[in-house]
Write a structure and sequence with these properties.
With about 300 residues, this protein is an alpha/beta fold. The protein has two domains: about 5-135 and about 290-305, Aspartate/ornithine carbamoyltransferase (Rossmann fold); about 135-285, Rossmann fold, CATH 3.40.50. About 35% of the residues lie in helices and about 15% in strands. It has a five-stranded parallel beta sheet with strand order 7-6-5-8-9, with helices on one face. Strand 1 (about 45-50), helix 2 (about 55-65) and strand 2 form a beta-alpha-beta unit. The two termini are about 15 Å apart.
Length: about 300
């Protein structure tokens, strides 16, 4: 594995290997001393052109626990605000000795361009590009599902997952559909017609407009944030109407099977796509997702920079 740009690039073996490696990383995090010497002397750059809390801090924690040096780069307050291009920024970081670049960018395809054009010789990890993909979020979601539904082993064959909400603007949804399908899960996208992207019929998943009909038959429901900042039109009549039709509340929690879990990539719009009852329910594994994100990103950095032959 040279880069981590899209979950569509991962075959079954590579996806399971990442999850198994993350499980090993999680085991090391239960020790008194959590740091590993694996990436000592390597430099990881967090190149973030969009605001982020969970992803940026998670990648920083993951790199530091592997003993890498970390440089955090934010577009705000940098030469980007003066008009510097992605190419020039990347080449500057390369000249400073970056071994890996973790990039979040508002333009879909920016990480792929960074990797393909050779502006950096280091590994490129996509931390979210526009409305395209967010592969490490999908990996931590799969890791969380595997732990809760499969005892932390194997794949997700036969697991039924509903992904609900603003699919149109969600890079998390796209990455999850590809990865969960690769791992054998059955995915159903639930959204109003206006929030399903063109061409969704070619995705390896089912679609539905009726959340109440889908919930009784799933093992997990993943609620997506309504991304108002990316909306330039009226995609639904009102927030109240959206919440009534597609929000997860206490009534809909009771429709779920007893073993089913509730997920959300965060940040949550409480009262819109998810109620406080659902967000704070014992079924919710949202904080587990955050915790597992560090282990998954440790695994990704380890496999990209240390290689399969190294010992963690």
């Amino acid at each position: 594995m040279r880069h981590l740009l899209s979950t569509a690039d991962l075959d079954h073996a590579a996806a399971v290997q990442l999850l198994d490696t993350a499980e090993a990383m999680a085991a090391t995090q239960r020790r008194e001393i959590k740091k590993l010497p694996t990436l000592r002397g390597r430099t990881v750059v967090n190149l973030f052109y969009e605001d982020s809390t969970r992803t940026r801090i998670s990648f920083e924690a993951a790199a530091k626990r592997l003993s890498a040096d970390v440089i955090n780069f934010a577009a705000k307050g940098s030469s980007v605000s003066k008009g510097e291009s992605l190419k020039d920024t990347a080449e500057t970081l390369q000249a400073m000795g970056a071994d890996a670049v973790v990039i979040r960018h508002p333009a879909s395809g920016a990480p792929h361009r960074l990797a393909a054009m050779g502006w950096t010789t280091g590994a490129v990890l996509n931390a979210g590009d526009g409305t395209h993909e967010h592969p490490t979020q999908a990996l931590l979601d799969a890791f969380t599902l595997r732990r809760h539904l499969r005892g932390g082993e194997g794949d997700l064959a036969g697991v039924r997952v509903a992904v609900v909400g603003d699919v149109l603007h969600s890079r998390v949804a796209r990455s999850n559909v590809h990865l969960l399908h690769t791992l054998g899960a059955e995915v159903t996208l639930v959204a109003p017609p206006t929030l399903l992207p063109l061409g969704v019929g070619s995705w390896p998943c089912a679609t539905s407009f009726d959340l109440d009909a889908v919930l009784p038959g799933v093992d997990a429901v993943m609620m997506l944030r309504v991304q108002g900042e990316r909306m330039n039109a009226a995609y639904f009549p009102s927030e109240r109407e959206y919440s009534r039709r597609y929000g997860l509340d206490a009534r809909r929690l009771r429709l779920l099977p007893g073993h089913a879990v509730v997920m959300h990539p965060g940040p949550m719009n409480r009262g819109l796509e998810i109620s406080a009852d659902a967000a704070d329910s014992p079924r919710a594994v949202v904080l587990d997702q955050v915790t597992n994100g560090v282990s998954v990103r440790m695994a990704a950095l380890y496999l990209l920079l240390a290689g399969e032959g190294s010992e963690a």
